[in-house]
Every structure is written in C-alpha cells, then in structure tokens.
UniProtKB/TrEMBL annotation:
All residue ranges annotated as the Thioesterase domain in the record: 174-245
Molecular-function GO term, any one: hydrolase activity
Keywords: Apoptosis, Cell membrane, Cell projection, Cytoplasm, Fatty acid metabolism, Hydrolase, Lipid metabolism, Membrane, Mitochondrion, Mitochondrion inner membrane, Transit peptide
Membrane topology, from the record: Peripheral membrane protein
Name the record gives this protein: Acyl-coenzyme A thioesterase THEM4
Chief location: membrane
Gene Ontology terms: biological process: apoptotic process; fatty acid metabolic process
One protein family per Pfam: 4HBT
Spans traversing the lipid bilayer: none
GO cellular component assignments: mitochondrial inner membrane; mitochondrial intermembrane space; ruffle membrane
Intracellular or extracellular location(s): Cell projection, Ruffle membrane; Cytoplasm; Mitochondrion inner membrane; Mitochondrion intermembrane space
Reaction(s) this enzyme catalyzes, per UniProt: tetradecanoyl-CoA + H2O = tetradecanoate + CoA + H(+); octanoyl-CoA + H2O = octanoate + CoA + H(+); dodecanoyl-CoA + H2O = dodecanoate + CoA + H(+); (5Z,8Z,11Z,14Z)-eicosatetraenoyl-CoA + H2O = (5Z,8Z,11Z,14Z)-eicosatetraenoate + CoA + H(+)
Source organism of the structure: Phoxinus phoxinus (Eurasian minnow)
C-alpha cells in the first residue's frame, strides 16, 4: 500500500519535474519586492531537514518549498535587469479587472528537492534518498555556483534561462568550467523537453564551445524545440551574452520519454 502511494507520488513528481503544472504566481512582482520577501525567507532557512517523524506530512512536498529561481542579493544588476525583462513578459493583460489575454511566457519555479521523505517501497527508497538534492541547487552560499531562472514560452515552444556563473564554477583560469556550462544546458533543455513532453531523460547532448565564458558572467541560454518524433524530443540551444552579441556555446540535445518504471530498472 505504502509502495503504491509512493509510486503515485513519484508519478506526480515526474510531472512536476517537467514543470507542466506549476505556476509561480509572481507575475508583475518587481525584483525589489521579491528580494525583500526572499531575504525574509532566508532568515528562516529551508536547509534544515531534520524534522521529527511526528511532524512529517503525508504530502511529499514542503508546505513552502523555497523557489531557488527568485532574485537574491547575489544577483548582479545585469542578472536583475534580465530577470525583470523576462518577468515582465509573464504579465497577464487585464481590461477592467478582467483577464484579456494570457501571456505566453511563464517563469518556471525551481526547487532543490521534490520529495520530502521516501515513505516506502524498497525500490523507492533506493531511488529517492532523503538527503538527495538537485545538483544545481545544493550550495548554501548564494551566488557561489549556479544562479539561474528559466522562462518558457508555450506558444513558441522555447525557453530562455538567465544564468549567472558563480566563483566556484571555475575551469580555465577566470572562466567557467565546460562541465558547468554543459550542466546548465542539460538542465535548461531538459526543463523545456519535460515541459513539452512530460517525463524524459537525456539520451544525447552535443556541445560546441565557441568562446570562453568569463567567471561571474550573466548569460542567456536560449532553447527551442526542434522536433518531436515518437518518444524522442529534439531541442536546440545556444548560450549568448545578455545583449546576444556574443555566442558562447551551441548545443543540440535529444530527450527520450520514459515511463516511471524506467527509473526502477524496467524498460516497459
Ligand atoms: C529540472 C531539471 C531538469 C534536468 C534534466 C536533466 C536530465 C538528465 O540529465 S537525465 C540523466 C542523464 N541521462 C541518463 O542517465 C539516461 C541514460 N539512458 C537511458 O536511460 C536510456 O538509454 C534512454 C532512456 C535514454 C533510452 O532508453 P529506452 O527507453 O530503452 O529507449 P530506446 O528504445 O533505446 O531508444 C528510443 C529511441 O531513442 C533513440 N536513442 C536512444 N538513445 C540515443 C542516443 N544516445 N542517441 C541517439 N538516439 C538515441 C533510439 O535509437 C530510439 O529511436 P527510434 O524510436 O527511432 O528507434
């Protein structure tokens, strides 16, 4: 029974991982408003995971999970400006208090974990560990590694990520590590593929590094759907400066749709 509940939750997790059903509810909120909210939240750290069993919820998500893609004090003015630009595109037009047209842009929230506790089933507990965290969202020091926010455009089947590369991502002296860039490209193209196609895994990722990316840079990661063929979702990607005058990296990615069972070792 517990195993069944847990499997159902995992199905939900995978849907949410594709981030199809989440809305941020932040449209129209300015950077400064967000920053003051975030600073307040930070004093009530979300990193403490040692809740006693009696306080564990049957609902697998924290009541107020921290959205790591909201502005924080480590964001540079350039990062804030790009955030404000795309966040403004998420606004819904209203006329006389009534919604006129829903904007095609939507900010995707980003959490460092999806399931709070592994509640049952030997396979599930192997798969989901209580201390597991999303790779890009597990460093306490804000701004030290991956600071990013993803905006998707449903109509254009594309997305833009604003990414600020922190000091712990150094590869070549003074520049961002190619693996860190690949991580971000996998994350962004994977978010888009998941948004469009549901549960997926990366099957293939091809990268061309065109120019070295200085550490601390703010860049845009543009991803777009190329095509969907059966279970295969093909995504193209390019990483540019925020004014798009400089090309850093180009990529193509293939994602294959999977069933929940795939993560348990089943190929059905
Ligand atoms: C919010 C954060 C988002 C983060 C997103 C990050 C996502 C990830 O990083 S996932 C981790 C990295 N990826 C993995 O570990 C995946 C490991 N690989 C696998 O599990 C499997 O090989 C998997 C799922 C990709 C495909 O396996 P399976 O489901 O059996 O499909 P399979 O039948 O082999 O292939 C399906 C189709 O894809 C094609 N295909 C599979 N792999 C490849 C590949 N590497 N290159 C080209 N084509 C491929 C096959 O040829 C087949 O094509 P067709 O339907 O035309 O015959």
């Amino acid at each position: 029974m517990l195993g069944q509940i847990a499997r159902r939750r995992l199905g939900l997790l995978l849907l949410l991982h594709g981030q199809q059903r989440l809305s941020n509810g932040l449209n129209g909120v300015s950077f400064n408003q967000l920053l003051s909210k975030e600073t307040h939240r930070h004093t009530q750290s979300s990193f403490n995971t040692s809740s006693p069993i009696s306080t564990m919820s049957l609902w697998p998500f924290s009541f107020q999970p921290r959205d790591f893609s909201l502005p924080n004090s480590s964001w540079s003015p350039e990062m804030c400006k790009a955030y404000d630009h795309y966040n403004a595109l998420c606004d819904t037009d209203t006329e006389n208090g009534e919604e006129k047209k829903r904007a095609p842009w939507k900010k995707l929230p980003s959490y460092n974990r999806s399931i709070k506790y592994a509640t049952g089933g030997i396979h599930l507990s192997k798969l989901i560990q209580a201390k597991a965290r999303l790779f890009t969202r597990n460093v306490k020091e804000q701004g030290a590694t991956f600071e990013y926010v993803v905006f998707v455009n449903k109509e254009e089947k594309s997305c833009v990520c604003v990414f600020q590369a922190g000091r712990l991502l150094e590869g070549a002296p003074g520049h961002v590590h190619g693996g860190a860039i690949a991580t971000m490209i996998d994350t962004v193209t994977g978010s888009l593929a998941g948004y469009l196609s549901g549960p997926i895994m990366t099957a293939n990722l091809n990268l061309d590094y065109r120019n070295p990316m200085p550490l601390g840079s703010v860049v845009l990661i543009h991803s777009a759907l190329d095509r969907i063929e059966g279970r295969k979702t093909f995504i193209t990607c390019k990483v540019t400066s925020t004014d798009e005058s400089k090309l850093y990296t180009e990529a193509t990615a293939l994602f294959v749709s999977i069933s929940v069972g795939h993560l348990f070792g089943s190929r059905n």
